[in-house]
Design brief:
alpha+beta, 30% helix, 12 strands, five-stranded antiparallel sheet, 10 helices
């Protein structure tokens, strides 16, 4: 019998996954076989450990109220570095409300440089509970970096020890905010009231959950915009700034949806950074992020004197086939293109042409091939330490909302992710010109 090709293994594994999927509300078990791996990252026997102790060992019960404590980090060489005082609270939406392994927001008393990442007070611990590979955020951040987006959050995998108890493998991630080592634009002060100064900088998020203190609807599409920085935009001292950014988004919305939207002087190109829009669209469409249709988690920033810029990217635990609704589980079909702004932009042949050219550029650069290799490289890196995580959270054989499939093993989950991504890239390659 001739040896099976890697393509044959991929196809057989995909058939096993698809055959296992049915109308049941619970995802069935699938048997998958991993394909050969090239350039695998060595498995680590030990992750750095972030040790957090709250005052009085108080539990973290709220995503609104911080509690105080202290922290230290122990690196893979068993060297412990005190990090001083911190405040910790919960974060997230469904990830906080539905799952026992909780995500957290950290705010240190003084700026801390963690595991080689630039010093800052503000950090996030992602639990990645429903993503049993724990890789989807990491892989998409890497894609963002390969695409050269303006800034991508840095991240490190860590073991978390909370109040002297092992809490699992987490992703320690830089919090999205304006700063020289993060979104590097000029922060706007309350005293910035001149015509030039009020143009930026602003950090915004398209968020139908209205998760910030100041949120508003755009005029034509009724998209919900929230301003995360400056946080105090409701203050009387910031009245001019509040009026400016609200008006700028209204004008941007009108320029995109209006009859002269392709006009270089008054159309969308005069309000948005088109290159960033192209990159953001391609990234969201590649991973088919269920929240990538400009409703939730769509970050953008407005620099002083500059245009509205798409990014940074965030929140991909339900991307790459790890979802069972809205058709985001399927490897075929456009998804982010259904967002109102993108639907309109694709009516301009020039924008469509730029997307096609950028995709072909990524193909030629090997970006897409690298993305597939990263899946197994990262999975191999976590292959030893994931065991303890799933002893703490024994869910590999259990359906967790909103999983598309349940494979029953960590290797199976990584393989299912790899297969989904291979099929997705194949479909986009065949349809990018349409």
């Amino acid at each position: 019998m001739p040896a099976r090709s890697p393509r044959h293994v991929l196809v057989c594994a995909m058939i096993a996954i698809v055959a296992a999927c049915g109308p049941s509300t619970e995802a069935p078990t699938a048997v998958v076989t991993p394909p050969p791996v090239i350039a695998v990252q060595a498995a680590t026997k030990r992750l750095p450990r972030l040790n957090i102790v709250t005052d009085g060992l108080a539990p973290v019960l709220s995503k609104l109220v911080y509690i105080t404590g202290s922290a230290s980090v122990t690196d893979s060489n068993d060297v412990t570095t005190p990090l001083g005082t911190l405040e910790i609270r919960g974060r997230g939406n469904s990830t906080w409300d539905l799952f026992p392994k909780k995500p957290y927001r950290l705010r240190f008393g003084t700026s801390a440089s963690l595991l080689g990442m630039p010093a800052n007070r503000h950090w996030v611990l992602l639990a990645n509970y429903s993503d049993k590979t724990m890789l989807r955020n990491d892989i998409t951040f890497e894609l963002s970096r390969m695409m050269g987006m303006a800034w991508t959050p840095r991240a490190r995998f860590v073991d978390v020890q909370l109040n002297n108890q092992y809490a699992g493998v987490y992703q320690l991630v830089e919090h999205i905010r304006i700063g020289s080592d993060r979104v590097n634009i000029t922060a706007i002060r309350a005293s910035d009231t001149t015509a030039a100064a009020i143009t930026g900088g602003y950090m915004l998020e398209v968020d139908e959950r209205r998760g910030e203190d100041f949120c508003f609807n755009s005029t034509m599409t009724r998209m919900v915009w929230c301003v995360g920085d400056p946080e105090s935009l409701r203050d009387v001292a910031r009245t001019k700034q509040r009026a400016y950014i609200t008006n700028y988004i209204a004008r941007t919305d009108t320029s995109i949806m209006g009859s002269r939207f392709t006009d270089p002087d008054v159309g969308y190109a005069s309000f948005i950074d088109v290159e960033s829009a192209v990159n953001y669209y391609i990234l969201q469409e590649t991973v088919k992020n269920v929240d990538g249709d400009l409703r939730f988690g769509g970050f953008m920033f407005k620099p002083r004197g500059g245009k509205l810029t798409f990014g940074p990217v965030w929140d991909f635990d339900l991307a790459m086939g790890n979802v069972n609704y809205y058709g985001a589980d399927r490897t075929d079909g456009w998804y982010s293109r259904n967002a109102q702004w993108f639907t309109r932009l694709f009516q301009d042949p020039a924008f469509k042409s730029r997307v096609q050219a950028r995709w072909r550029e990524m193909q030629a650069a090997g970006t897409l091939d690298s993305l597939q290799r990263i899946v197994y490289s990262r999975a191999n890196y976590l292959s030893i330490v994931q065991v303890q995580n799933f002893e703490r959270w024994p869910i590999l054989g259990t359906w967790v909302w909103p999983n598309r499939v349940v494979t029953g093993s960590y290797t199976g989950e990584a393989t299912a992710l790899h297969l989904w991504l291979a099929q997705r890239l194949e479909w986009i390659n065949a349809n990018i010109g349409r």
